Amino acid sequence: MKLKNILIPFAGVLLLTACEKDHRNDNLTDPRVYIVNNGVQNAIYYDVEETIDYNIYAYSSGYFGQPSEVKVVPDPDAVEALNAANGSSYTLLGEEYYQIVKDTGSITAEGRRATLTVRLDCKGIMALPYMNDYVLPLRLTATGTEVNEKLNTILINPRMQETEVLAALLAGARVRVERDALEYRRYRRTAPLGIYQKCAGLERRLREMGICVAGTGGR
Fold first, then answer.
1. CA distance 13 to 11
2. I need a surface site. Which of 118, 119, 129, 212 has the fewest CB within 10 A?
3. Cα(162)–Cα(45) distance, integer angstroms
4. Alpha carbons 149 and 129: distance in angstroms, whole number
5. pLDDT-based confidence at 24, cuts 50/70/90?
């Protein structure tokens, strides 16, 4: 058999194969960004805290990563929608009680995730009536990648928990803490001045609440 008779049919097969559409990626999902900790999320803080930072995690799904810029924005309408859907009675948290300290982030094809941060004013929230019934609704937006509209909202519910110390004080008990238990004092010579002074300020607050620090004359 001549070599030409073998090569011609083989070349025809290659030509047909080359013209065939590639379907290997047909069933792969397109990239979508969404909030991992979406829905109602409790932001737990204790009665001795002035502020807390709460992190929001934006993630890019899909087989292939795609760079995008993400941002969270207040979404007051989400509170009404939540109450209507669940029969709840949450109240929108006023803007004076929080600060979005990091509202934007970059998602890379390799990293896939961005962390955004909200700072809550615990002291101010504790002064509100029914302080555990407030939520901060935030919605995720993005450029470069589509947003999963079902998972793009978070409603942060600040919830105060009393420490055992405060419970004891409210019950009229005498509370005493050993001076050596105040660990920050061990780092007086090495700690940055600002951090050390903040810790000292917290100790003063404990005394103002009626807590006796042993070894300092209770003062």
1. 5
2. 129
3. 9
4. 33
5. very low
Instruction: Provide the 8-state DSSP code for 157.
Output: E
| One-letter amino acid for residue 204 of the chain | R
Q: What is the pLDDT of residue 25?
A: 43
The pairing of beta strand 212-214 with beta strand 68-74: unpaired
Residue 182 Cα to chain centre, angstroms: 30
Provide DSSP, 63-101.
SS---EEEEEEE-THHHHHHHHHH----EEPPGGGEEEE
Span 93-139, pLDDT tens digits: 999 999 999 999 999 888 889 999 999 999 999 999 999 999 999 99
Integer Rg of the chain from CA: 29
- What mean pLDDT do residues 40-51 have? 88
User: Interior CA angle at 43 toward 42 and 47, to 5°?
Assistant: 120
Alpha carbon distance 217, 186 (integer Å): 19
The residue type found at 65 is G
Q: Which parts of the chain are beta strand (E)?
A: 32-35, 39-46, 51-61, 68-74, 91-92, 98-102, 104-107, 113-121, 134-143, 146-147, 153-161, 176-178, 212-214
Return the closest-CA partner of residue 102 out of 121, 119, 123, 122.
Answer: 119
- Residue 214's pLDDT is 72
